[in-house]
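L-seryl-tRNA(Sec) selenium transferase
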Amino acid sequence: MNPLPTQEQQQALRRLPAVHRLLEHPIVKPYHDRIPHSYLSQCTADVLAMRRREILEHSLPGEVSETDLADRVVQNLRRWAEPRLKPSVNATGIILHTNLGRAVLSEEAADAISRIARSASNLEYRLEEGERGSRQDHVEELLQRLTGAEAAMVVNNNAAAVFLVLRALAEGKKVIVSRGQLVEIGGSFRVSEIMRESGARLVEVGTTNKTRERDVAEAITEETGLLLKVHTSNFKIIGFTEEVPRKAMVHLADQNGIPFFEDLGSGVLYDLKKHGIGDEPTVQECVRAGVDLLSFSGDKLLGGPQAGIIVGRKEWIQRLKRHQLARSLRVDKFTLAGLESTLRHYLNPEEAAQKIPTLHQILKPAEKLQKQAEQLKQLLSPEIGDFAHLEVIPSQSEVGGGSLPGVEMPTYCLAVTPVKGSVTGWEKKLRQAETPVIGRVSKDKLFFDLRTMEEADFPRVVQTFREVIATGEA
Ligand SMILES: *Cc1c(COP(=O)(O)O)cnc(C)c1O
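Predicted structure tokens:
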């Protein structure tokens, strides 16, 4: 129970203005034309209620002026009137930054989503026949063509894809997986947990660093429903290691008449190995190797919208499509529009590399990044004046999002060393600006990595710096 308010607290409470009075404050007044009255009074009442709590809970009799309260009302109004989810500049150098929304879509994919959002569409309607169709039709053929798989389907994300496969094909059965692949991916996706939730029983084989073909072969029994291989997306075991080769897993599954399912995690359609980047097999290579089912994300290396893509043999995909869960995990029309458009780029790999920001950023040569860093420095110098020191510094960026672990790419950063204010102060202001600019802090510098920035971002970056400098005390 709260103790009775002290006399001081009572006085502070009495001094608080009434709602109607605060509404008439010159700072709040201009909002009367723009914002419905009921909403305006609610925001004002909320601010006063909060102030009352402050007084009572913290025994804070210290004065908060009416102007301060009016400021709070306006802040409160803005908080509700402006979108919370907003475009930001990713200057972290981490291309697939999970907290910053992972893949950025191509212009074409973004336009496709916008077009489908603004109109009715043939989502589940076959225009040729004038009959009901499947929403999967719009991407299945493209996926067959691009990956060489017999069939394909798309669900909400890759975690859902893995869950659906385990549930539909191995509920109540045993699933064999190497101990070295019992991973946890960011955001609490744990292979062992998802397996339990799906009703499949996990059979771990081998050791953390070594699993041999014999380990898998000896574990297969009548009760085995599936062989599973999971991409160890966010770490790498180095040194004395051994994995069962893909071909051997395919062979074991074939011999025993059970499917071999591989969770590829990222899943690349574009051959990055050719550019000396990582050693990921492409989805096409895995299909060719005879893997029965493969799943991967739409918004990792593929560079499309959030989705879980499953490709493989028709008989298994049919079972997934018919399963009850498929409805719960289905993708919406925006995802399909963005995905279809993204996949279409891959019909011409050069077009994919050029138009899909994820690939484009991975492939950007260091010389170009250096030029862009110099360019940004030129643009920012007049804004920053003597508030900070600017320099172009070589560094390393990574793909992130559990893709290509251990692969680093040479990059260039614009480094800002504050002269006025602290580095954490600058970081905070840039992050809290109208268009947030998210960099990384290292010691006394703020780094803005050009690998994840586009020239089209520059005006927004300049504007944000201008705002921050205008506050005068970054
Ligand atoms: C990222 C990842 C997932 C989860 O994919 P989402 O699309 O984020 O749901 C599952 N498995 C592996 C191996 C991954 O790397």
